């Protein structure tokens, strides 16, 4: 039995981030796209900051609504 039974491959069509601090936002957007059946075209470093702010605002709104 191999030590790691999983195969490793590099997906060419998936977005790659350059800023190491953005990996969490990329991961969440990746999961969202997968669950909605969308592709990842357009997900890049140039739009990740606005997406981070939108995500933070959505989380904040949920916390406020839950606290009421």
From TrEMBL:
Keywords of the record, alphabetical order, are: Hydrolase, Protease
* Hydrolase found in the keyword field: yes
In what residue span(s) does the Ubiquitin-like protease family profile domain sit?
Answer: 9-64
Any one Pfam family here would be Peptidase_C48
**Gene Ontology biological-process entries:** proteolysis
GO molecular function list: cysteine-type peptidase activity
What superkingdom does the record give?
Answer: Eukaryota
Q: Which family does it belong to?
A: Belongs to the peptidase C48 family.
Q: What is this protein called?
A: (rape) hypothetical protein
